[in-house]
Specification:
19 helices, 0% strand, mainly alpha
């Protein structure tokens, strides 16, 4: 079942597929400054209303702002004991939904119009594939519509596969087909028998190899390939391969604190506790000194990062102190961090033999999001104490 969850959750990776142009909009985007990115991309649509890529950029930033606000971009909350499929939907406002659909529909209409004139128009094929990929991401994350997401992902792959046939030297165009290979190569039979997937089995290793080529030799898609590979490497338990990618991304986008959060997770996965704690200390220094991108970072987010790390290293006393700080402000944080901190606090109490305190913490997690999978998991721990297996993995009640 774990591989099933990981495979389908990889659809989330299809979102960041736009080109990393040397533009103010994408500098803001990759540094998590989504309001500024949206303003820049809105201006781009006004200056170039007939450019489908301009509308794709706007849709991209609109969706990712919602993902960021909900904590959906943080790897620790996507992997390990909390696979992505088990998470709450990304919450969007009606205004954001309308903005996203307006932008995507406009991009699709413009691309398809160009393709009526020339079915092999490379610019239109590129934009069309990106539009379908973004809509796949929206269907997966916001609507939780798995089949619709896979259908759009298939259409995205077809458009960019045609691009690679027209121009085999177009390394950037290999990105979406590579991701599709990885995803479908990991899907269980139940998904592969869907009509639009029939006969296509994918290949996880082939997908990874193609992504590696884009990360090494790509131009416009190189950044996206590095981001995707870093996430995939963690899922594939290849943290040692993700570290140099993250180091490169941190140099490019120094205001993106999530990249530093991610490298902490990679050091942790490698068993390098010292490097992980050193990076956390660096993040705290950046925040305290008001470094761009870190000045407004809630300290409880850093406390969660540290407490979660120490939880897995069984440093329970310090982990407990950290999680108490986080849960004290849980309602002020994104839902995923808030609910996870309550469940993690309960697990720490269980491991320390403080059952009454553990039950109280689990009930807080349930109260925050009773229908979420973390809420359901916490409800099970109310009835049966959390136990850690000898391997350090979670036990399943």
């Amino acid at each position: 079942m774990r591989h099933h969850l990981i495979a389908v959750s990889s659809l989330a990776l299809i979102g960041a597929l736009l080109r990393a142009q040397d533009s103010a909009g994408y500098d803001h985007f990759y540094n998590l400054e989504y309001d500024e990115a949206i303003a820049a991309f809105t201006a781009q649509t006004e200056q170039h209303p007939d450019d489908p890529n301009a509308w794709n950029h706007l849709a991209h930033a609109t969706l990712y702002r919602a993902m960021y606000r909900g904590g959906a971009l943080e790897s620790e909350l996507v992997t390990g004991s909390n696979p992505f499929l088990r998470r709450q939907k990304v919450k969007t406002s009606p205004v954001e939904d309308q903005q996203f659909y307006d932008a995507i529909d406009k991009a699709l209409d413009l691309s398809q119009s160009h393709l009526l004139d020339n079915q092999d128009d490379p610019v239109a094929l590129d934009a069309l594939g990106v539009s379908y990929a973004l809509r796949a991401n929206y269907n997966f994350l916001v609507r939780k519509a798995w089949t619709d997401a896979l259908h759009d992902a298939t259409d995205a792959r077809k458009a960019h596969k045609r691009l690679t046939e027209l121009d085999p030297g177009n390394v950037d165009a290999r990105l979406i087909p590579a991701l599709y290979d990885y995803i479908t190569g990991s899907l269980p039979l139940g998904y592969r028998i869907l009509g639009f997937l029939a006969g296509y089995h994918g290949d996880r290793n082939r997908g990874i190899e193609a992504l590696q080529s884009v990360a090494q030799d790509g131009n416009a898609s190189r950044v996206d390939a590095e981001v995707m590979l870093a996430a995939i490497y963690r899922r594939e338990r290849r943290a040692q391969d993700a570290v140099p990618l993250l180091q490169d991304l941190i140099q490019r986008f120094p205001r993106n604190f999530l990249l530093r959060f991610e490298i902490v997770q990679m050091y942790s996965d490698l068993g390098d506790k010292t490097s992980a704690l050193s990076e956390i200390a660096r993040i705290r220094d950046f925040r305290q000194n008001g470094a761009p991108g870190f000045a407004d970072l809630p300290p409880e987010k850093i406390d969660y990062l540290e407490g979660n790390l120490l939880f897995w290293y069984s440093d329970l006393d310090q982990a407990l102190d950290d999680m108490k700080k986080v849960t004290a402000k849980a309602r002020d944080l994104d839902l995923n961090t808030g609910i996870m901190s309550w469940m993690r606090l309960g697990q720490i109490y269980d491991l320390k033999g403080r059952r009454l305190s553990a039950v109280a913490a689990y009930k807080k997690a349930v109260a925050m999001a009773p229908l979420s999978e973390v809420g359901k998991e916490s409800r099970r721990y109310v009835s049966q104490p959390y136990k850690r297996l000898a391997t350090g993995a979670d036990s399943e009640p």
